[in-house]
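Posting here for the record, re: ketopantoate.
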Amino acid sequence: VEMERARAKMPGHYSGSFAPFTAGDLMEYTLMSTPWHILGAGSLGTLWATRLARAGAPVRLILRNEARLADYRAGQGLTLVEQGVEQTYPVVGETPDSPEPIHRLLVACKAYDAQSAIAQLHHRLAPDAELILLQNGLGSQDAVAAQVPLARCIYASSTEGAFREGDWRVVFAGHGYTWLGDAGHPTPPLWLDDLQAAGIPHDWASDILTRLWRKLALNCAINPLTVLYQCRNGGLQAHACEVATLCAELAELLECCGQPAAAQDLHSEVQRVIQATAANYSSMHQDVANHRRTEISYLLGYACQAAARHQLVLPHLQQLQARLVEYLRARGLASD
Ligand code: NAD
Ligand code: KPL
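Prediction output follows.
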């Protein structure tokens, strides 16, 4: 399929007669044939890999080591379950030691794994490499960007939802949208066409940092409380005063960090999200319930550090962080 798609895009393919190469043709051919390397075969990595592969884009899945690769190769590929219908895609797997240079890399691991995962691939990044960072929260993206100063790092914020049902099998649980942006260079990359072809709903966002800060604030106002009160998002309607106080402190933090647009009407949006997702458990609640490490350092931890940097006293946010850390430690879970 990859070859067919590439051939169809090659200059002169349709005419069968002489058709001169143009710079545009060559650029398009190069783009279509550039493999998408996907780092992290978890929920979002699989969701992207399967949809890109289905559209005929060349995809390479980077697995941790030879043992994981052997396990992957023993099966049929990656399975995506969509509205109860499952489909398996034979995406090519490889390890970080594979020799092929990487031009386009989707980083789909958790925020706390991103830096060490990139370190393993550093030697393979081509001079024109572009990284798409799918991590939630803030902090990991800047850390990765500092690790690879020559690469273009595109930050993403996604409201799509997926979960793993087992190894190499992911359920597409919630349709959503992915915003991509590069605060340093406003020009959108040409490979957004691949996302279009793959049916991945997306938009180029000139305000990606505002979006990431806004999502971080929403997650800080909702997720920790759902863990501490062991409730669904809707359960926070019984803690309305606490939510309101947190929103006021978070809005103050956003203003102080130069993100006034992210602070706009924060409380009403948090209330709207609580209502709209009342029956759901937050992602942090799900992590704790499944004894998985949370991304606390990139959410509440990041917010509290930013407040400290600005010498801003936010007592409720700081107390929330202390309560959550204590709660996680008491259950033997990592608190970083
Ligand atoms: P996940 O745990 O399902 O997948 C992460 C994968 O990365 C795992 O398979 C893990 O083994 C792999 N990994 C870690 N280190 C690696 C390494 N060095 N080499 C190779 N593979 C490695 O996580 P996820 O749910 O897909 O989340 C990824 C990010 O996307 C998180 O920051 C999360 O908050 C964010 N996000 C997830 C969703 C969702 O619905 N799952 C939605 C929005 C945002
Ligand atoms: O993003 C979320 C999550 O659970 O991580 C919502 C639903 C917005 C709650 O904060």
